[in-house]
Amino acid sequence: MNHAESSLASSSLITPTPAVCPVHSRWRLVLSIFKLRIGVLIMLTALAGMAIVPNGVVASWQTLVLALSVLMASACAGAFNQYVEADSDRLMARTRGRAFASGALQRGPRWLVLMLGMLILAVAAAGLATNWAAALFVLLGALTYAFVYTVWLKRRTPWNIVIGGAAGSFAVLAGAAAVDPQLGPQAWLLALVLLLWTPPHFWSLAIANRDQYAAAGVPMLPVVVGPERAARTVHWCTLLLVAVTLLPLGVGAGWAYGVAAVIGGVNFLRKTSALVREPVRARAMAAFFASMVQLSVLILGVWIDAALR
After folding, report:
1. Residue 156 and which of 7, 188, 218, 220 are 20 to 30 A apart at CA?
2. What percent of the chain has pLDDT over 70?
3. How many Å separate Cα 221 from the centre of its chain?
4. Which fold, 184-309?
């Protein structure tokens, strides 16, 4: 056997790499526009809103429908954000690979029709399964992110995310209203926590990606005031946030929520304090991840309290 024949024989023993299924790849591409990781987080805050209502009782199927409604509404708002922001997303390394920005999916009216249909379905499902107060909050959350933040505020003011963060608050209120349309103080305070959580969470990420936002012409706070001042703002906002997370303890929140508020808050403050001392990317990302831990621990605390009631 000559060398060529030997090479051919050896290569025939190698198992070929399976080809990627075009249909599977296409579905993954389509799903990527809906920002499902953010949607799941928003859905969990809605479930926390349901759990925080004292003596609230809803059927399991109502909880499932409300959760999926919030997820779907968040998904369509996330897709609309990517649709509108495709041109600026191309200018940022963090976002240029998104489906609309990269051209992997072509923008067109059919996508807008799909998003509108999803939103109508989500709102109708929430209203029919629970009540129309919950459905209204589902609608307001999606519209706040899609239009108030994405279309109106994002390119006009460095304080865009302060008001845009109300999208998460509406998810909490949707969950609470699904249990009892007459919202109590715990529901409003948890919604306030979500409103105050969003700015230090997002500005930490913006500090880490300041140059990319500047290149895209997006006036995020660190671009406008610089990383040092933005870091101080993040820290002061976190101090206010942590203080507000303790307020539900005065209106009936249980010990598990209290422990979660203290642990998550102290950890977040440690990271933002380090960011003030050294406003660099590594510190900013550490603060960003600490914000995620804080919210996750708070939600867990709410659920534990509900389970122990």
Report:
1. 188
2. 92
3. 19
4. Four Helix Bundle (Hemerythrin (Met), subunit A) (1.20.120)
